[in-house]
Write a structure and sequence with these properties.
The chain has 340 residues and is an alpha/beta fold. The protein has three domains: 3-86, Winged helix-like DNA-binding domain superfamily/Winged helix DNA-binding domain (Arc Repressor Mutant, subunit A); 95-147, Helix Hairpins, CATH 1.10.287.1350; 148-339, 3-Layer(aba) Sandwich (Rossmann fold), CATH 3.40.50. It is 46% helix and 17% strand. It has a seven-stranded mixed sheet with strand order 6-5-4-7-8-12-11, with helices on both faces. The N and C termini lie far apart (51 Å).
Length: 340
């Protein structure tokens, strides 16, 4: 790599937060929804979304240079295929992710030196309490978080496994039921249970109702550190364990095992969906480790290798049976385990 290209690449990285915050601003204003039908003049958009028209024109003009909007006439702009995903009404929308990343996540990364020096999440030093404790007292943030987590890799991760023969699927900490709804749509004989905090359950009611599967979905408010619904023949933990320390993750797994063996006879299977770190520290590959960095700054958890998960599962009383890897640098892997 030439020094000129290397310097240019670094400059692009250093200014990437500007681009992300610009996406946050247009998502927060609701501009992509307002532009869903086609090109709109800045004056109309500013009046509709509550923005200064001159500033909004400069913002959109800058984003045109990045390929995020199209200018179709003087001071008239349209979405591109990229910013279509900032609409709230499209499948796999990233609008709430843009809002979450532009607010609490951005502020936490701004204080990354606290984490580097102390080993503690910057989020806690800024907001005065751990992420999930703060979330419990902030209904709007809880709604944003649940929706942002709702659809990530749902179809791809479900495709890794086969739920044929499963009659009752329990999704533990499954957000606003994106994965559970997808499973119910794919398997018409399946019944599902979601365990989540109150705000996520409220959103999940909308998700399952809009999908027409509400008659097969049981939505349970609760805390997976306290208890997990019994009676499932398959349990799912999708991107849950990486949010927690080994001790807390082990406690979650033990609660799941208790639910699976509540009648005294071990049965059923556990499906864990997570991004796996490579076993070797050298050449981790594109994307690997960035979610782990997010965990450092925002929460108390961390990503793990396949061997790490095997040990964690064994300590909680499970035996790891199969591992299936998704395709792509950011894809989840599926680990299937049974009570030992």
């Amino acid at each position: 790599m030439s020094s000129v290209f290397a310097r240019r690449k670094l400059l692009g990285i250093l200014s990437s937060s500007w681009v992300a915050q610009a996406c946050y601003a247009v998502a927060k204003l609701g501009l992509p929804d307002a532009m869903a039908a086609g090109p709109r003049p800045v004056a109309e958009l500013a009046a509709e979304c509550g923005a200064d028209p001159r500033v909004l024109n400069r913002l959109l003009r800058a984003m045109v240079s990045m390929g995020l909007f199209r200018q179709t006439a003087p001071q008239t702009y349209a979405l591109t295929s990229v910013t279509e995903f900032l609409r709230s009404d499209v499948p796999a929308s990233l609008r709430q992710m843009a809002v979450l990343d532009g607010e609490e996540v951005f502020r936490s990364f701004a204080d990354i030196m606290h984490t580097v020096r102390t080993g503690s999440p910057a989020f806690e030093s800024i907001y005065g309490e751990p992420f999930y404790a703060y979330l419990a007292g902030q209904p709007q943030l809880a709604a944003t978080f649940a929706e942002a987590m709702n659809g990530a890799q749902v179809s791809a991760t479900l495709a890794l496994g086969d739920l044929t023969g499963v009659t009752r699927l329990v999704d533990v900490g499954g957000g606003s039921a994106g994965l559970l709804t997808e499973a119910l749509l794919r398997y018409p004989a399946l019944r599902g249970v979601l365990l989540e905090l109150p705000e996520a359950v409220r959103q999940a009611k909308t998700t399952v109702t809009e999908a027409g599967v509400e008659d097969r979905a049981e939505l349970v408010e609760g805390d997976f550190f306290e208890a997990v619904p019994a009676g499932g023949d398959a349990y799912v933990l999708a991107r849950v364990l990486h949010n927690w320390t080994d001790e807390r993750a082990e406690l979650i797994l033990r609660k799941v095992r208790e639910a699976m063996t509540t009648d005294g006879a071990p049965g059923g299977r556990l499906i864990v969906l997570e991004q796996l770190l490579p076993e070797a520290e050298i050449e981790p590959g594109p994307g690997k480790g960035m979610v782990d960095l997010l965990m450092l700054v925002l929460m108390e958890g961390h990503d793990r290798t396949q061997a790490d998960y095997r040990r964690l599962l064994e300590r909680a009383g499970f035996a790891l049976r199969t591992v299936r890897h998704g395709s792509g640098p950011d894809a989840d892997s599926m680990l299937e385990a049974v009570p030992a």
